[in-house]
From TrEMBL:
This is DUF4153 domain-containing protein. The keyword Transmembrane applies. Keywords: Membrane, Transmembrane, Transmembrane helix. It comes from Mucilaginibacter boryungensis. The chain crosses the membrane at residues 65-85, 92-110, 116-134, 146-166, 186-211, 223-240, 252-273, 285-305, 317-340, 352-373, 393-413.
Length: 414
């Protein structure tokens, strides 16, 4: 797009059209060009326009606020269904916790992006398929496939949310990376909301206790559960209406934690050698090892989503390359451990799920690492790294479908 911007620099109408067609790409490309164009009247105007940030919080229209309030109340009502319908909590929440928030967030982005009737039908069909399938699974005690299905159903619903956010199936890497960035911003905003809510809860309970009212149980079962359900919805609305709220916090977190995680992983891998413990003969250790792997992958994804927006320093790219390379080592150890356990004790639902997940993550890591190396070798731009991640995201969606819907049938609900 950089060449197109240069060509149309003296054509304001065409620049405006390019901007409205793809705001993210236009802003990134213009940011790369502006140091060369500084001093040009039109370029200076667009620089100010693209970088203008209002000091005021945008609360949107009264209609938008009403919809957010209704969505928050609906989330709270769904969370309270066990109390309203006398459903066992240990049956309802493991299976349906994802339906408290994800469908409402999906509806928000489907409305915002004005999706076609066909795409909305797909979203509704996928969500209903998840609702009916998970709730009609046998209530078998100690069922590995049930646990795996419940966990991967959350990832399935997250993928459906991603489809509503992107608005299309074809590979639009900028929108897909925008979805990853939205997740990072949402975590930051929701955490802030929950911290504020926790402070308010403590003050409220403390004040009532001073006058002799013990409201803890009532508060947590009613006000608290509604607040927890509403937090991601309110957080989403605030981040979308006011991207400047956490727009500068998220990149700082990405820059801060990436090198720290590199150091932590090196120290941790060294400590494993001296500790004598390994994931080959310790099931719990293998589970923690894989949880670590997923967490580090999330950091890499988020860091790349931030880094791909603009040109970054060579040092930052080196940090990402080291982080990816070390994570490949961690993944390889985990993969070899699960292969060892399968060769010794055979296939189980858990081992099959971990094996498939590790293979997918390792493949993705290799693609990302290759692109980071090409970037440092001046054979590709940093945006190629983002494209590698964005291109691979649908593969995870397919895997969540397999584990959520097919594993229970293949393994006989064991």
């Amino acid at each position: 797009m950089k060449d197109e911007i240069l060509t149309q620099l003296n054509n304001p109408a065409q620049l405006e059209k390019m901007y409205r067609n793809n705001k993210t790409s236009f802003k990134r490309s213009f940011g790369m060009l502006y140091p060369e164009l500084k001093g040009n009247t039109i370029a200076d105007f667009w620089h100010e326009r693209l970088n203008y940030e209002s000091d005021e919080i945008n609360w949107g229209t009264s209609r938008e606020l009403l919809l957010v309030i209704i969505a928050s109340l609906l989330a709270g009502i769904i969370a309270k269904l066990p109390a309203f319908l006398s459903i066992k909590e240990d049956f309802f929440y493991p299976r349906n916790i994802g339906f408290i928030v994800f469908p409402l967030l999906t509806a928000y982005f489907a409305r915002k992006n004005k999706l076609s009737a066909g795409k909305i039908a797909f979203i509704i069909g996928a969500t209903l398929a998840g609702v009916f399938f998970i709730n009609f699974l046998p209530d078998t005690k100690k069922s590995d496939t049930l646990i795996l299905s419940c966990i991967h159903l959350l990832l399935f619903l997250w993928s459906v949310l991603g489809f509503a956010f992107v608005g299309e199936i074809k590979n639009n890497h900028e929108k897909r990376l925008g979805f990853l960035k939205y997740n990072g911003d949402l975590v930051v905003m929701t955490t802030l909301i929950l911290i504020a809510g926790a402070i308010m809860t403590g003050i409220t309970i403390g004040l009532f206790s001073l006058i002799g009212f013990k409201i803890e149980e009532f508060y947590f079962k009613n006000v608290g559960i509604f607040g927890l359900a509403a937090a991601p919805i309110i957080g989403t609305y605030l981040t979308q209406a006011n991207p400047q709220l956490v727009g500068k916090v998220s990149p700082v977190i990405a820059k801060l934690f990436s090198p720290l995680v590199v150091v932590m992983l090196v120290v941790y891998l060294t400590a494993i050698i001296y500790s004598g413990k390994n994931p080959y003969n310790n099931r719990e250790f293998l589970l923690i090892f894989n949880a670590l792997l997923v967490g580090v992958m999330a950091i890499i994804f988020f860091s790349v989503a931030e880094t791909s927006k603009t040109t970054k320093s060579v040092a930052e790219t080196w940090v990402l390359l080291l982080l990816s390379a070390i994570t490949i080592i961690v993944n390889s150890v985990a993969l070899s451990a699960i292969l060892f356990r399968i060769s010794e004790w055979g296939f189980t639902p858990n081992r099959a799920a971990v094996l498939g997940g590790n293979v997918l993550i390792l493949t993705n890591l290799l693609l990302v690492t290759a692109q980071l190396f090409r970037t440092l070798s001046k054979k590709a731009e940093i945006t190629a790294v983002g494209k590698a991640i964005a291109f691979y995201l649908p593969v995870y969606f397919v895997w969540t479908i397999i584990v959520t819907f097919i594993f229970p049938l293949v393994f006989g609900f064991k």
